[in-house]
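Study this pair:
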Amino acid sequence: MAWLLALTPVAAQTVGFLDSSYDPRTGPDGTVLGAALEGTTNRLLIGGDFDNFGTLPRAAVTVLRANGLVDAAFDPGSGVNSPSSIDAPSPGRIDELSRPGSKRSVQAGAFAPDGKIVLGGNFLHYDNVPVTHLVRLNADGSLDLTFRPDPVIPVDSQVIFPNIPAPGGSTTIETTTNVESVLVAADLSVYVAYRVFRKTTVVIPSPSSTTVTEEIFSDFIHFERDGALDPLFRVVIDGNIPLIYRAGIQPDGKLLISGRFINVNGFPRPGIARLNADGTIDGSFSPTTGVLPELIYNFVRQPDGKFIVVGDFSSFDSALRRRIARIFPDGTVDPTYDPGFAANGAIRQVAVVPSTGKVVFAGDFTLFDGLARPGFARTDAGGKIDTIFNSAGELSGRNFAINAILPQSDGKVVVAGDFRQYGSVARNRILRLTADPVSGGGGGSSGGTNSTARLSNVSTRGFVGTGDSALIGGFLVTSSTKRVLIRSMGPTLTSFGVSNALSDPTLELRDAFGTLVAQNNNWQAGTDGGAAVRDAGLAPADPREAALVADLAPGIYTVVVRGSGNTTGVALFEAYDVDGLVANRLSNLSTRGQVLTNDRVLIGGFAVTADTGTDNRRVLIRGMGPTLASYGVSGTLSDPVLEIYDSAGNLIGRNDNWQDSQRADIVATGFQPQDSREAAVLLLLPSGNYTAVLRGVSGSTGVGLVEVYEVR
């Protein structure tokens, strides 16, 4: 059979570029106004004006795992909220955000290098604690009380002065503040750009007249890591309604700001400027004339150090540039960048995908380089439009807007804002796109089967009972003698939050005839004192855990994990290929155990190792239940469901009944399940760690079997 380009289940991808493995379910019940991506984990921080995320209360802020689901480890409590009890306002003053039910939102946020999170927006309370538009949180979502920023950002307020300017008259001053950008430096200090809208209403009763004056301005300030204001950091912008729309920090610690301004700290910098870390102007970045009009909404740095700037302008350095320009690191325009006719409306968001160099834009446009692109477009690094991306205008919704575009290192892109669906698929305000289009039949990794990719280790976590309810794993050694390390872990699992871990695991290694090949209780109690285990670099952390190293001839092997003294609990079984010989493989891996509910489902893991970065391995994963009864196993799982995840927690395959998808391809492997209720997924996988989770339909329980086959 010929190798396939796409081997994820039919349900894994549905339309265009949509990554269906990233599914935030019903999502937030309000707009996502800002978002930040944690690069090492692909966790997503979102802020907005929502109250709930799905069925979970998440007032204006939450964190999502790499698969799009809410990260339960981050709990903001009452979140960005109004307190449950309100003190009486002082005479003549009403703080608008001090009343229950008043508007509050998070517009900006950032993951700090130490794992903490900084939030900025329009709020005066976090989890019922008074704050002023800016907070730092611990990784679990609780308020970090070591960061107490000086209250220099103006609070939202309404102040009424009676009898001014005349008896019976009044003057009302209303102030609204929004934090637009939050930056966390390497030294954990925080830069904040905020905008203030001030409205003054003067009423004179006789003769009756009313005067309304409105003004808007921005400021950019710096807080030390404890929240103390840096008095030496001073940024002054001026121009017609001077505003900062975006601030960013470069790898070298220098700062970039863009917006509506003409001068910065007395230097001509129309629309964009670069600052040193202390707030002084960076003279090495000096656009000749900048943009006209001076309105840059956003910018992004390309890998070569150049910047793409977007906004609502017609020229840059006197060169015709319709809302997009690329500039050199010194701020001057790049004449070689050509996006054609570009956008016919303002561009507000821009992002570069690191793995491909492609550039994604969002804004108020309907056309891009003459092609219909309702608010969303993609080009190559040189500005040429992608004729496939968003050609049908897939994103839609009542108040369609994209407020954040966040590329991942693997080429996928997270998009957030105020939309309701992508094509015909419901996606409420958050979705993820693949690097390239996928069809209804598949997605995932592409490329041919390559002999230098191999299955290199397997692991399974499950509940260890007594008798037939022990945890049983199996693997196949092919070709020639192979050195394998086998471990059974229990106490170590508690450090990963696993409850009811097996306190003292044992393991037995048996061949295809059931003959005992090796066994171990405490790994240091082996004949060599555990030296072979230590030499392999895989010694368990706890002396009660079991491990052994064995040189195994070709054949089928079984590992049985039990509890010493018939104890029970959750355990982890692992088998490692420790000699790395490509010609000799672990080519079939399996595990049998109790499938219960919650944390006690059967969880199997395996790794694909390639000798070159482009190799892939075609793998069949099966979830078995009913068939086990024919082998004398009682209490089998009647209807298994199989889920496959990558190392980032992304769902890359799912199946309930194996004949529902990929039926012909699975049959062609010769490893199709015997019962139609059993599950199977065929995948083409690059190097990496993968997890298979076996559950029962509707929470059913029983003995199940997970198998991983290397298919050539």
